[in-house]
Design a protein that fits this description.
The protein is α/β, with parallel strands linked by helices. The protein has one domain: Aldolase class I (TIM Barrel). Helices cover about 45% and strands about 20% of the residues. It has 11 helices and 8 strands. It has helices at about 10-20, 35-40, 40-50, 65-75, 90-100, 115-125, 135-140, 145-150, 170-175, 185-190, 195-210, and strands spanning about 1-5, 30, 55-60, 80-85, 105-110, 130-135, 160-165, 180-185. The chain has an 8-stranded parallel β-barrel with strand order 1-2-3-4-5-6-7-8, surrounded by 5 helices. β5 (about 105-110), α6 (about 115-125) and β6 form a beta-alpha-beta unit. The longest helix is centred in the C-terminal third of the chain and has 18 residues, at about 195-210.
Amino acid sequence: MNFQLALDRLTREQCFQLLKETESSIDWIEVGTGVIKEYGMAIVREIKAAYPEKVLVADMKTCDAGKHEAIQAFEAGADITTVMAFSADKTIKETLEAAEKYGKRIMIDLLGVTEPSRLIELQKLGVDLVSLHYGKDMQQEGEMGEDLFSLTEGLDGVDIAIAGGINKKSLAGLLGKPLDTVIIGSAITSAENPGQTAREMKEVVNQHENNH
């Protein structure tokens, strides 16, 4: 299982300090939407240059002008860029075409999607990577429920990531689910010792994988 660190609502300095402390425990680096809005494509370039061996996710949350935004992210060094599932099919199609051209990937963010039928439509468009997303504002009302997983039930040939206030305790409960990538943000970035927290959470994943 890939371990993705989401860098969001942070300064450039904080991003690089966190990466320095956690790099040995993480597989994928996500440059969060807030960070991209603050620093633009420049920070995507800088992080890719500093960590070329890591998979870099630019959380663009594209919902229109798909081709343009996907190319923007890929040319800055992103390996994956995110597109919202509620976008027009044409938008999604154009981002997928750009990804194919650049040898990169599109992650479709399922925030706000409640119908499994949308997943079938997305798969028909050629989508092979989605992210179950329990939003920041929703997290204030409680933890994510099981119904989030019903969206992707029985879906074959699609890699599934999950994000949404995941901490060490809730991580253990997710490991039996059909997931390929787990996205951790503030549980690590706000921790007193981010490096240690990342190591401990990665260890939880490794132990689970070694036992199965």
